[in-house]
Structures are given as C-alpha cells and as structure tokens.
C-alpha cells in the first residue's frame, strides 16, 4: 500500500482511513495477523485492484 501511495497510484483515502488509523476492518491486516499471504494489490477492504502493479 505504501509503495502504491508513494507512486501516486493509490488514493490517500486508503492510507488515512485504514493504514494510519489501525482500522480493525482492514482485511489486509486481519490476514497478516493470521499469517495468511495476500496479493500486494489487495485494498484494505479486501478488493483486488488490477490497476496496481
């Protein structure tokens, strides 16, 4: 997420509302806590964004 945001490919909404505030609804974080891998282009709400590469 950070890389895509820094490259200007990801809207600030995602980092402000999920990453920076430790949102408990973040699907990425839930998967990471369970040790489950997820694709880099998965958004915090669980959707896959094929434009992020």
- What oligomeric state best describes the polypeptide chains here? single chain
**What is the percent of helical residues?**
25-40%
List low-confidence stretches.
none
Work out the helix count.
3
Question: What fraction of the residues are assigned to beta strands by DSSP?
Answer: under 5%
Q: Average pLDDT across residues?
A: 91
Give me the strand/helix succession. HHH
Biggest sheet details = none
Give the structural class. mainly alpha
User: Can you tell me the number of structural domains?
Assistant: 1
Index terms:
53 residues, mainly alpha, 3 helices, 38% helix, 0% strand
Offer a quick outline of the entry.
The chain is mainly alpha-helical. The protein is 38% helix and 0% strand. The chain has one domain (1-53).
How is this fold's topology laid out?
Elements: H1 2-6, H2 12-19, H3 27-33
Describe the protein's architecture and organization.
The chain has helices at residues 2-6, 12-19, 27-33. 38% of the residues lie in helices and 0% in strands. It has one domain. The model has no long low-confidence stretch (mean pLDDT 91). It is mainly α and 53 residues long.
């Amino acid at each position: 997420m950070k890389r895509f945001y820094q490259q200007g490919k990801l809207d600030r909404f995602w980092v402000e509302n999920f990453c920076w505030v430790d949102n408990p609804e973040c699907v990425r974080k839930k998967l990471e806590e369970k040790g489950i891998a997820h694709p880099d282009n998965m958004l915090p709400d669980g959707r896959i964004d094929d434009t992020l590469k």
